[in-house]
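Pipeline run #58 for the internal structure catalog. This entry was flagged by the ingest filter as a single-chain record with no existing model, so it goes straight to prediction. Upstream metadata was stripped on purpose; only the residue string is passed forward. Reviewer on rotation: M.T. Logging verbosity set to normal.
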Amino acid sequence: MSATTAVGVGIEPATRPSGGRALRVVVVNGSPSVESKTVGLVDVVLDTLRTMVPIESSRIDVYSLGPGFAQATERAEVTPDVEATIRRVEEADLLLAAAPVFRGSYPGMFKHFFDLVDQYALTNKPVLLAATGGTDRHALVLEHALRPLFAFFQALTVPVAFYASAGDFDGTTLLNPRVHGRIEVGLTDVVDLLRTRATGVTDD
């Protein structure tokens, strides 16, 4: 599993595998906890993607960004460290947006983060969606809440998306082999898209 310890203002240090041109993957974690089922799902997605293409990954835990983020009502009001965090998302090659389901949708702090992102900064940027919830009945949050959010930004939301329910985990560790399989198949189907859209590099 990938390390999940966040440092600084809710940012996990970037990790880069040796060799190859790495995709800069930034995770926006909408969970109130830095150790959660949502982060467990993200770890599996990143670990699987890392076997297919070189990546360097960092994670932003929105609930750890502090008052310089939570009290800002517009971009000009954020503190310098939060501004740098937002720019990290805007400059990423690939965004992995992950959130738990609360009352049928993503948490308010997750939405607040994207309220501060420049309206055009994510245009054509590849975005992978991931979510967790108590039962499979919440799985449509991917299509009915998360996908429309990134459609507003005109982002390139990847056709595959990943959901796991509480029963798929032991604590925060994703154990269900069916979910692991869906992640592997889904990423295999879109890895060429991610590679070429994010870096312009092809296998030719």
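catalog note: Confidence is low (pLDDT under 50) at residues 1-19.
catalog note: Helices lie at 37-50, 67-70, 80-90, 108-115, 141-152, 177-199.
status: ready for reviewer M.T.
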